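Journal club side-thread
Mid-discussion, someone asked how the predicted structure for our own chain would compare to the paper's figures. Pasting it here so we can look after the session.
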Amino acid sequence: MRSSETGYLVRTDQGDWLCRAVVVASGACNIADIPSFANKVPRSITQLTAQDYRNPEQLADGGVLVVGASSSGTQIAHEIHRSGRPVTLSVGEHIRAPRVYRDKDLEWWMDAAGVLDDRYDEVDDIARARRVASLQLAGTPDRSTLDINALTEIGVKLVGRLGGITENGKAQFSGSLRNVCALSDLKMGRLLDRIDEWAQKNGFDATANPPHRLPPTRVEPAPPLGMNLASGEIKTIIWATGYRPDYSWLELPVLDHKGRLQHDGGVVSSPGMYLMGTQFMRRRKSALIDGAGDDARDLISHLVSYLDSRTARTRA
């Protein structure tokens, strides 16, 4: 896609389109975001992303290193360990959360209490808010909580965030694992405190179960700071390190130095271009299915004003 005399030229496999305005709704999770040092992993180790992974039958027998402890990483680590393979989980920034709280699904509480309606122009640091990891939630028939404690109870080993790999295949892990987990517990407590406050103010305390908290995340006193990937112990690495959008098709100066689309609440820096469906675009729920409606209504108002102003200028 590139600019044209009247607005934008969009090229597709069904022909070209000329338009005065365009909405980019191509998704925020097009490409697995793998660290650059992945190319230093020994060739004897198979590497997969969470996008590539389907089931443990894909994997060779032997140890598995799962990198990333948000929702995908925890679920993959759990499933692989249950297959009989030893699993080490590299834990970076994450947000721990109970699947069910006070007898209701946590997402129900977040929606009812207005957490998902938090706006991008009301938070202190929107750039950081857009980088926050997803909640550590899994969808299961029994709505059980799958967190780091649940994983260590079945034998999954924990290490800190993978910070790099040396030329000879030595993985280097952060020593801040305990602090990262403590911060995750703190964030969970703040979220549940907000829900409790809303429940009390809106008359739910009489009908909902009493407030409760999960025990703190358990971390061994001195987790390993390194691992020799060339030793043969690890046969597979699963990169559960998140995703990034693919804007390679945009031939416009609208990306920052990290390849992210520059916008203000979905209004892109290029006139007549809009964005939909990315993390915390206008609201905390912007990347969720039920967040599209409110964002679309806001952006449609702006888009209509833009088209009206262009029409008025043309007539003048």
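Post-session note: Residues 96 and 179 are 14 Å apart (CA to CA).
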